[in-house]
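Quick question, first post here. What does this chain look like in 3D?
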Amino acid sequence: TNGVVIALMTPVVNALVTKAMCTSSGFIAGFFFPPDLDLGAPTSQSNHGEIFYSIVADPSGTLSCAHSTAGVKSIAPGTFVHEFQHMINFAQHRLILKRTASEEGWLDEGLSKYAEELAGRSYLQQGDTATFSQYAFNDVDDAYKYLSATGGSPLLIEFDQGTLADVGASWLFMRYLVDQFGNSLPGKLDQTTLVGAANVAAQTGQTFTTTVTRWALANWVSDLPSFMTPPELSYTSWHFRTRTFASLHQQDSTDFPLPYPLVPATSPGSAVNLSGTLQSGSGFYGRALQGPGAQAFTLLFNGSSPSVFTAVVPRLNVIRIR
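> Answer (accepted):
Ran it through. Tokens below.
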């Protein structure tokens, strides 16, 4: 709106959470405030410019939990890139293209998490793997949290109110889409009046059901040993199973207890029994071990009431890996 983006470091951001909240559930490192782009709003409600608000160093913890200068320097760049994407996305949808609705939370978060990774990759071109890791680590850590318990986290969060595992799902889905449809896809998703699943379908040329189904399968079969993974079920920019998570497990088995966090429940085909709440866009994984010549079996969906599937249609994705 005024030709510049202002980075404002203010103790107000620190004070948004108490010390107790900071210890139990984390803190807010920074944010973008959409009304700041509304030039028609009164100055009591808008600063009339593109502004990124960040925490300040507070080593003594006088405002909330303590933040060292080095700590703020470490987290501020990634947070800025993350919020900058939110700013661009909001401006494209609401101000430039005049749409009445902003992008849905899950896709907006996925794009912002991808922006963090993309910023880090610019350092890889210079051979600076340490700075790349600084930008990308949170993405990978969130993805590990999601894959550790996919049944507990939805992909389709309406607003940016999800857990780190939910955000991990958003990044994994966006990472899969870019691997499949190219580096120009994020820009297309930003510069449109469409939102959510309709946006993804329009920019990829495939139904959302197709992309989300293939993504779910890719989370298990990409880089799966002794399996010829189809290209459409693969991550190409990361080797989570054979390299990334295995390396993190070797370095820190406390925070990354498994070489690969997704461990499907395993049973004979006739004994498959999965229960829980189906989360939107996500689900549970199970391996049915069916021997040669074994009798056929039938899988049934049961709900808590006869009408449970009238508004929600469960999806069963099956792939043979042996």
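The two ends are 57 Å apart (CA to CA).
The CA atoms of residues 89 and 190 lie 5 Å apart.
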